[in-house]
Amino acid sequence: MSKKRAEKLYAVLKKILCESIHLTITDNTHVFLNASYRKKMWHVRLHWMFTKAPSPIQHHVARYILNHNKKSSKVIDQFIEEHWHWVRHPLPSIVTKGKVYDLQKIFDRLNRLFLKGKIKAKITWGKSAARRSYEQLQMGSYSSSRRLITIHPSLDQKWVPRHVVEATIFHEMCHAMIPVKKINGRKQIHPLVFKKLEARYPHLQKVQKWEEKNLGSLLRKPGRG
Ligand SMILES: [Zn+2]
After folding, report:
1. pLDDT, average across residues 141-147
2. Is residue 33 predicted with pLDDT exceeding 80?
């Protein structure tokens, strides 16, 4: 974290809060913003991501501290969501080698062949699901905040064809490439550009046929996220 950046952030806060400020820059993984006014002084603790934020965001931070401005709160939330990957989260342990399929190898190959190596996400097998959460029942999922693709462990079986595993991974890689779009306030999870990108994978029809037949026995509640 650069001192210059912290000083710039301090200057923005000072301009809006107009009082003495004790600013602490943190690397806290849970609390990103905390401020209180005590003894004629603002005590502000901010995650270092805000030192890297553009000025308008920093202004919102100051305004939020000053009067809990609702719009500022929204803007800040969005900034945090977008930069979640800057936070040192303990990632769930990454397991790429399964008994049958090595996810990283497949990921790298698909990335090279169809996406010009652009995808930077990590990939892991999900935990074998004793937990019956919704996420666990999807063949694959992508977390944009963690930049992590998780693949359902039931795909790691010999009778599951390689192209099914590939298509599942590729689908989630497309999610990593194409953010969820909001059109008229409605979320478009698989917009047309997504479908076009996904169609770069050559065996989609074959995969769909296989899934129609076998997904039921693979997962209780089929579907990809
Ligand atoms: Zn999807």
Report:
1. 86
2. yes
Nearest to 20 by CA among 3, 37, 45: 37
Claim to verify: residue 66 and residue 143 sit in the same structural domain: no
Task: Determine how many CB atoms are found less than 10 A away from the CB of residue 5.
Answer: 15
At residue 187's C-alpha, the angle toward residues 184 and 142, to 5°, is 160
Query: Same domain for 108 and 12?
Result: no
> Looking at the domain assignment, is residue 204 inside a domain?
yes
Domain boundaries, position 132: 103-218
Ligand 1 center–CA 175 separation, angstroms: 6
Q: Per-residue pLDDT averaged across 104-115, rounded? A: 98
CA of 34 to the centre of ligand 1 (A): 36
CATH of the domain at 209: 3.30.2010.10
Rounded to the nearest angstrom, the distance between the alpha carbon of 218 and the centre of ligand 1 is: 18
78 CA distance to ligand 1 centroid (A)? 22
Taking the complete model, does pTM exceed 0.85, yes or no?
Answer: no
